[in-house]
Protein backbone atom coordinates (compact mmCIF):
# COMPACT_ATOMS: atom_id res chain seq x y z
CA UNK A 1 0.00 0.00 0.00
CA UNK A 2 1.46 3.41 -0.94
CA UNK A 3 2.60 5.59 1.95
CA UNK A 4 0.57 8.68 1.03
CA UNK A 5 -3.08 9.01 2.01
CA UNK A 6 -4.61 8.06 -1.31
CA UNK A 7 -8.14 7.76 0.04
CA UNK A 8 -7.95 11.38 1.19
CA UNK A 9 -6.45 12.43 -2.14
CA UNK A 10 -9.24 10.59 -3.97
CA UNK A 11 -11.95 12.17 -1.83
CA UNK A 12 -10.46 15.60 -2.51
CA UNK A 13 -11.32 15.12 -6.16
CA UNK A 14 -8.00 13.90 -7.39
CA UNK A 15 -7.81 10.95 -9.70
CA UNK A 16 -7.89 7.20 -8.85
CA UNK A 17 -5.19 6.45 -6.27
CA UNK A 18 -4.72 10.21 -5.95
CA UNK A 19 -1.67 10.09 -8.18
CA UNK A 20 -2.58 12.65 -10.82
CA UNK A 21 -4.11 16.10 -10.44
CA UNK A 22 -5.53 17.86 -13.44
CA UNK A 23 -3.97 21.23 -14.10
CA UNK A 24 -6.46 23.85 -12.89
CA UNK A 25 -6.45 25.76 -16.18
CA UNK A 26 -7.21 22.76 -18.37
CA UNK A 27 -7.55 22.41 -21.24
CA UNK A 28 -4.16 23.99 -21.90
CA UNK A 29 -4.58 24.09 -25.69
CA UNK A 30 -7.70 24.39 -27.82
CA UNK A 31 -8.29 25.13 -31.50
CA UNK A 32 -9.25 28.70 -30.48
CA UNK A 33 -5.54 29.35 -29.75
CA UNK A 34 -4.46 28.23 -33.24
CA UNK A 35 -3.17 30.91 -35.61
CA UNK A 36 -5.11 29.35 -38.51
CA UNK A 37 -8.48 27.61 -38.77
CA UNK A 38 -8.48 24.20 -37.08
CA UNK A 39 -11.23 21.89 -35.89
CA UNK A 40 -9.36 20.20 -33.03
CA UNK A 41 -5.90 20.10 -31.41
CA UNK A 42 -5.04 16.99 -29.38
CA UNK A 43 -2.76 13.95 -28.76
CA UNK A 44 0.60 15.82 -28.56
CA UNK A 45 4.11 14.40 -28.31
CA UNK A 46 6.12 16.17 -25.58
CA UNK A 47 9.82 16.86 -25.10
CA UNK A 48 12.12 19.41 -23.45
CA UNK A 49 14.04 21.49 -26.03
CA UNK A 50 16.38 24.35 -25.09
CA UNK A 51 14.86 24.58 -21.61
CA UNK A 52 11.29 24.79 -22.92
CA UNK A 53 8.52 22.25 -23.18
CA UNK A 54 7.76 21.54 -26.81
CA UNK A 55 4.50 19.92 -27.77
CA UNK A 56 4.11 18.49 -31.26
CA UNK A 57 0.35 18.69 -31.48
CA UNK A 58 -2.00 16.83 -33.78
CA UNK A 59 -4.09 19.46 -35.53
CA UNK A 60 -7.20 18.42 -37.44
CA UNK A 61 -8.11 20.83 -40.21
CA UNK A 62 -11.56 21.64 -41.53
CA UNK A 63 -11.33 18.85 -44.13
CA UNK A 64 -10.86 16.28 -41.34
CA UNK A 65 -7.16 15.71 -42.15
CA UNK A 66 -4.53 15.98 -39.43
CA UNK A 67 -1.02 17.44 -39.48
CA UNK A 68 1.49 18.12 -36.69
CA UNK A 69 2.40 21.52 -35.32
CA UNK A 70 4.66 22.90 -32.59
CA UNK A 71 3.64 24.79 -29.43
CA UNK A 72 6.24 25.87 -26.85
CA UNK A 73 6.03 26.99 -23.22
CA UNK A 74 8.67 27.90 -20.65
CA UNK A 75 6.92 26.25 -17.70
CA UNK A 76 5.09 23.58 -19.70
CA UNK A 77 1.76 24.91 -18.49
CA UNK A 78 1.10 28.49 -19.58
CA UNK A 79 1.82 31.04 -22.28
CA UNK A 80 1.99 28.61 -25.20
CA UNK A 81 3.58 29.98 -28.35
CA UNK A 82 2.09 28.20 -31.33
CA UNK A 83 4.00 28.10 -34.60
CA UNK A 84 2.34 30.14 -37.34
CA UNK A 85 2.39 27.29 -39.85
CA UNK A 86 2.12 23.48 -39.77
CA UNK A 87 5.39 21.79 -38.83
CA UNK A 88 4.92 18.37 -40.46
CA UNK A 89 2.22 17.73 -43.02
CA UNK A 90 1.62 15.35 -45.92
CA UNK A 91 4.09 16.35 -48.62
CA UNK A 92 3.04 14.16 -51.52
CA UNK A 93 6.30 12.19 -51.54
CA UNK A 94 5.10 9.65 -48.99
CA UNK A 95 1.81 8.30 -50.27
CA UNK A 96 0.98 6.63 -46.95
CA UNK A 97 0.70 10.08 -45.35
CA UNK A 98 -1.91 11.31 -47.79
CA UNK A 99 -4.85 11.46 -45.38
CA UNK A 100 -3.13 12.48 -42.16
CA UNK A 101 -0.22 12.58 -39.76
CA UNK A 102 -1.47 11.77 -36.26
CA UNK A 103 -0.50 11.11 -32.65
CA UNK A 104 3.29 11.71 -32.52
CA UNK A 105 5.58 10.37 -29.81
CA UNK A 106 9.07 11.84 -29.37
CA UNK A 107 12.37 10.59 -27.92
CA UNK A 108 15.94 11.89 -28.06
CA UNK A 109 18.02 9.22 -29.84
CA UNK A 110 21.30 9.34 -27.95
CA UNK A 111 23.50 7.78 -30.62
CA UNK A 112 22.00 9.69 -33.55
CA UNK A 113 21.88 12.95 -31.57
CA UNK A 114 18.46 13.60 -33.07
CA UNK A 115 14.90 13.56 -31.89
CA UNK A 116 12.94 10.65 -33.31
CA UNK A 117 9.29 11.36 -34.03
CA UNK A 118 7.10 8.31 -34.61
CA UNK A 119 3.65 9.16 -35.89
CA UNK A 120 0.63 7.55 -37.45
CA UNK A 121 0.34 7.97 -41.22
CA UNK A 122 -3.18 7.53 -42.52
CA UNK A 123 -2.96 5.75 -45.83
CA UNK A 124 -5.59 4.29 -48.12
CA UNK A 125 -4.53 0.89 -46.74
CA UNK A 126 -5.19 2.00 -43.15
CA UNK A 127 -3.08 3.58 -40.41
CA UNK A 128 0.59 2.69 -40.06
CA UNK A 129 3.60 4.11 -38.22
CA UNK A 130 6.23 6.37 -39.83
CA UNK A 131 9.49 7.80 -38.54
CA UNK A 132 11.05 11.23 -38.96
CA UNK A 133 14.13 12.60 -37.21
CA UNK A 134 15.04 16.19 -36.42
CA UNK A 135 17.47 18.27 -34.43
CA UNK A 136 15.40 21.44 -34.23
CA UNK A 137 11.75 20.70 -35.14
CA UNK A 138 12.21 22.83 -38.27
CA UNK A 139 14.09 20.47 -40.61
CA UNK A 140 13.06 16.81 -40.64
CA UNK A 141 14.47 13.68 -42.27
CA UNK A 142 11.66 11.32 -43.18
CA UNK A 143 12.33 7.59 -43.02
CA UNK A 144 8.88 6.62 -44.32
CA UNK A 145 6.80 3.68 -43.08
CA UNK A 146 8.29 1.46 -40.37
CA UNK A 147 5.57 -1.19 -40.31
CA UNK A 148 2.60 -2.17 -42.49
CA UNK A 149 -1.03 -1.30 -41.62
CA UNK A 150 -2.82 -1.56 -39.30
CA UNK A 151 -0.48 -0.20 -36.70
CA UNK A 152 -0.51 2.80 -34.35
CA UNK A 153 0.70 4.14 -31.00
CA UNK A 154 4.44 3.73 -31.56
CA UNK A 155 7.60 5.03 -29.94
CA UNK A 156 11.28 4.16 -30.06
CA UNK A 157 13.38 3.70 -26.97
CA UNK A 158 16.22 6.22 -26.86
CA UNK A 159 19.07 3.74 -27.22
CA UNK A 160 20.01 0.30 -28.52
CA UNK A 161 19.70 -2.91 -26.53
CA UNK A 162 22.21 -5.60 -27.54
CA UNK A 163 22.94 -3.58 -30.68
CA UNK A 164 19.28 -3.23 -31.70
CA UNK A 165 16.76 -0.43 -31.54
CA UNK A 166 13.46 -1.26 -29.88
CA UNK A 167 10.08 -0.04 -31.09
CA UNK A 168 6.90 -0.19 -29.04
CA UNK A 169 3.82 -0.27 -31.26
CA UNK A 170 0.25 -1.49 -31.50
CA UNK A 171 -0.65 -3.59 -34.52
CA UNK A 172 -4.27 -4.61 -34.94
CA UNK A 173 -4.32 -8.36 -35.62
CA UNK A 174 -7.56 -10.34 -36.10
CA UNK A 175 -9.32 -7.50 -34.29
CA UNK A 176 -7.02 -7.85 -31.27
CA UNK A 177 -5.14 -4.78 -30.10
CA UNK A 178 -2.17 -5.58 -27.82
CA UNK A 179 1.06 -3.61 -27.35
CA UNK A 180 4.07 -5.16 -29.13
CA UNK A 181 7.81 -4.61 -29.20
CA UNK A 182 9.97 -5.12 -32.32
CA UNK A 183 13.70 -4.74 -32.95
CA UNK A 184 15.92 -3.34 -35.68
CA UNK A 185 19.68 -2.98 -36.32
CA UNK A 186 19.19 0.10 -38.53
CA UNK A 187 15.78 1.71 -37.84
CA UNK A 188 14.57 0.30 -41.17
CA UNK A 189 14.28 -3.48 -40.88
CA UNK A 190 12.09 -4.66 -38.02
CA UNK A 191 11.72 -8.16 -36.60
CA UNK A 192 11.74 -10.39 -33.50
CA UNK A 193 8.21 -9.16 -32.77
CA UNK A 194 6.74 -9.95 -29.38
CA UNK A 195 3.74 -8.93 -27.30
CA UNK A 196 4.55 -6.58 -24.46
CA UNK A 197 1.13 -5.86 -22.92
CA UNK A 198 -2.03 -7.86 -23.53
CA UNK A 199 -5.56 -6.60 -23.21
CA UNK A 200 -7.30 -7.92 -20.10
CA UNK A 201 -10.74 -9.18 -21.16
CA UNK A 202 -13.42 -7.95 -18.81
CA UNK A 203 -11.22 -5.22 -17.34
CA UNK A 204 -11.18 -1.48 -17.99
CA UNK A 205 -8.44 -2.19 -20.58
CA UNK A 206 -10.12 -5.31 -22.00
CA UNK A 207 -10.93 -4.13 -25.51
CA UNK A 208 -7.70 -2.43 -26.61
CA UNK A 209 -4.41 -1.27 -25.18
CA UNK A 210 -1.85 1.02 -26.83
CA UNK A 211 1.29 2.83 -25.82
CA UNK A 212 0.57 6.28 -24.48
CA UNK A 213 3.60 8.35 -23.54
CA UNK A 214 7.17 7.86 -24.65
CA UNK A 215 9.10 5.58 -22.23
CA UNK A 216 10.55 7.62 -19.37
CA UNK A 217 13.82 6.36 -17.90
CA UNK A 218 14.02 6.01 -14.11
CA UNK A 219 16.37 4.10 -11.83
CA UNK A 220 13.62 1.48 -11.41
CA UNK A 221 12.99 0.94 -15.12
CA UNK A 222 11.17 2.50 -18.07
CA UNK A 223 7.92 4.07 -16.98
CA UNK A 224 5.15 3.98 -19.57
CA UNK A 225 1.64 5.27 -19.45
CA UNK A 226 -0.70 3.43 -21.80
CA UNK A 227 -4.30 3.78 -22.86
CA UNK A 228 -6.82 1.07 -22.18
CA UNK A 229 -10.21 0.87 -23.86
CA UNK A 230 -13.47 -0.58 -22.64
CA UNK A 231 -16.47 -0.90 -24.98
CA UNK A 232 -19.80 0.14 -23.49
CA UNK A 233 -23.35 0.52 -24.78
CA UNK A 234 -22.56 4.24 -25.17
CA UNK A 235 -19.26 3.77 -26.99
CA UNK A 236 -15.64 3.32 -25.95
CA UNK A 237 -14.04 4.75 -22.79
CA UNK A 238 -10.32 5.57 -23.05
CA UNK A 239 -8.41 5.61 -19.76
CA UNK A 240 -4.78 5.66 -18.63
CA UNK A 241 -2.76 2.86 -17.01
CA UNK A 242 0.84 2.61 -15.85
CA UNK A 243 3.51 -0.04 -16.49
CA UNK A 244 7.20 -0.49 -15.77
CA UNK A 245 9.67 -2.13 -18.19
CA UNK A 246 13.01 -3.58 -17.20
CA UNK A 247 15.79 -1.03 -17.72
CA UNK A 248 18.21 -3.31 -19.59
CA UNK A 249 15.67 -5.75 -21.05
CA UNK A 250 12.71 -3.51 -21.87
CA UNK A 251 10.81 -6.37 -23.52
CA UNK A 252 10.16 -7.54 -19.95
CA UNK A 253 7.21 -5.82 -18.24
CA UNK A 254 7.97 -5.91 -14.52
CA UNK A 255 4.87 -4.16 -13.13
CA UNK A 256 1.45 -3.12 -14.39
CA UNK A 257 -1.27 -1.21 -12.61
CA UNK A 258 -4.54 -3.04 -12.02
CA UNK A 259 -6.41 0.26 -11.93
CA UNK A 260 -6.58 3.14 -14.32
CA UNK A 261 -4.98 6.32 -13.02
CA UNK A 262 -6.84 8.88 -15.10
CA UNK A 263 -10.09 8.63 -17.00
CA UNK A 264 -12.67 10.95 -18.56
CA UNK A 265 -14.39 12.96 -15.85
CA UNK A 266 -14.25 16.66 -16.63
CA UNK A 267 -16.57 18.20 -19.24
CA UNK A 268 -13.73 18.70 -21.76
CA UNK A 269 -12.93 14.96 -21.49
CA UNK A 270 -16.54 13.83 -21.68
CA UNK A 271 -17.71 16.15 -24.45
CA UNK A 272 -16.02 16.65 -27.78
CA UNK A 273 -15.61 15.05 -31.18
CA UNK A 274 -15.07 11.67 -29.51
CA UNK A 275 -16.59 11.76 -26.01
CA UNK A 276 -15.05 9.88 -23.10
CA UNK A 277 -11.42 9.95 -24.20
CA UNK A 278 -8.28 10.61 -22.17
CA UNK A 279 -5.46 9.72 -24.56
CA UNK A 280 -1.91 10.12 -23.15
CA UNK A 281 0.81 10.80 -25.72
CA UNK A 282 3.58 12.83 -24.07
CA UNK A 283 5.26 13.12 -20.67
CA UNK A 284 7.98 15.25 -19.12
CA UNK A 285 9.84 14.18 -16.00
CA UNK A 286 10.93 17.59 -14.73
CA UNK A 287 13.53 16.73 -12.09
CA UNK A 288 14.16 20.37 -11.20
CA UNK A 289 10.51 21.06 -10.43
CA UNK A 290 10.10 17.51 -9.06
CA UNK A 291 7.08 17.17 -11.28
CA UNK A 292 5.81 14.58 -13.74
CA UNK A 293 3.73 16.25 -16.42
CA UNK A 294 1.37 14.15 -18.50
CA UNK A 295 0.01 15.66 -21.73
CA UNK A 296 -3.07 14.06 -23.22
CA UNK A 297 -5.74 14.43 -25.82
CA UNK A 298 -9.15 15.15 -24.30
CA UNK A 299 -12.18 13.90 -26.25
CA UNK A 300 -10.20 14.21 -29.51
CA UNK A 301 -10.73 17.96 -29.20
CA UNK A 302 -8.20 19.66 -26.91
CA UNK A 303 -4.98 19.10 -24.92
CA UNK A 304 -5.11 18.40 -21.19
CA UNK A 305 -2.33 18.35 -18.60
CA UNK A 306 -2.17 16.23 -15.45
CA UNK A 307 0.53 16.46 -12.80
CA UNK A 308 2.03 13.85 -10.51
CA UNK A 309 4.81 13.55 -7.97
CA UNK A 310 7.51 11.38 -9.64
CA UNK A 311 8.35 9.58 -6.40
CA UNK A 312 4.69 8.72 -5.77
CA UNK A 313 4.42 7.31 -9.29
CA UNK A 314 7.44 5.06 -8.74
CA UNK A 315 6.32 4.04 -5.29
CA UNK A 316 2.88 3.20 -6.66
CA UNK A 317 4.07 1.15 -9.64
CA UNK A 318 6.45 -0.78 -7.38
CA UNK A 319 3.45 -1.69 -5.23
CA UNK A 320 1.57 -3.03 -8.30
CA UNK A 321 1.47 -6.72 -9.18
CA UNK A 322 4.55 -8.02 -10.92
CA UNK A 323 4.00 -9.36 -14.40
CA UNK A 324 5.44 -12.81 -14.91
C1 LIG B 1 -7.46 5.94 -31.29
C2 LIG B 1 -6.62 6.91 -32.11
C3 LIG B 1 -6.52 8.25 -31.45
C4 LIG B 1 -7.83 8.75 -30.90
C5 LIG B 1 -8.52 7.66 -30.11
C6 LIG B 1 -9.89 8.08 -29.57
O1 LIG B 1 -7.72 4.79 -32.03
O2 LIG B 1 -7.20 7.05 -33.38
O3 LIG B 1 -6.03 9.18 -32.39
O4 LIG B 1 -7.58 9.85 -30.06
O5 LIG B 1 -8.68 6.52 -30.92
O6 LIG B 1 -10.76 8.46 -30.61
Model description:
With 324 residues, this protein is mostly beta strands. It has one domain: 5 Propeller (Tachylectin-2, Chain A). Helices cover 6% and strands 47% of the residues. The protein has three helices and 22 strands. The chain has helices at 6-11, 267-270, 310-319, and strands spanning 21-22, 40-49, 52-60, 66-73, 81-82, 101-109, 114-123, 126-134, 140-145, 151-156, 165-173, 176-177, 179-184, 191-197, 208-211, 216-218, 221-232, 235-245, 253-256, 278-286, 291-298, 302-308. The strands form five sheets. Strands 10, 11, 12, 13 and 14 form a five-stranded antiparallel beta sheet that branches. Strand 4 (66-73) and strand 5 (81-82) form a beta hairpin. The longest helix has 10 residues, at 310-319. The two termini are 20 Å apart. The relative contact order is 0.15. The structure holds beta-D-mannopyranose. The site of beta-D-mannopyranose has 9 residues, from strand 6.
Features:
324 residues, mainly beta, Tachylectin-2, Chain A, five-stranded antiparallel sheet, 3 helices, 22 strands, binds beta-D-mannopyranose
Brief characterization of the structure:
With 324 residues, the chain is mainly β. The protein has helices spanning 6-11, 267-270, 310-319, and strands spanning 21-22, 40-49, 52-60, 66-73, 81-82, 101-109, 114-123, 126-134, 140-145, 151-156, 165-173, 176-177, 179-184, 191-197, 208-211, 216-218, 221-232, 235-245, 253-256, 278-286, 291-298, 302-308.
Amino acid sequence: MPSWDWEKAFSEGRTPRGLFSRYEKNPILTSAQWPYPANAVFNPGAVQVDGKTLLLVRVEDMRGFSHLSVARSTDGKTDWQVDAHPTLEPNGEYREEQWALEDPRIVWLEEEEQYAVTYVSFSEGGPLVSLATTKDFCEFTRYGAMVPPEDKDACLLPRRFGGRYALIHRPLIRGEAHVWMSFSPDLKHWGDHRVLLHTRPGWWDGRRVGLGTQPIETAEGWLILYHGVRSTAAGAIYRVGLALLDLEQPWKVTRRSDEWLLGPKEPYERLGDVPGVVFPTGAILDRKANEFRLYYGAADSSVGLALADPEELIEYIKSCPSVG
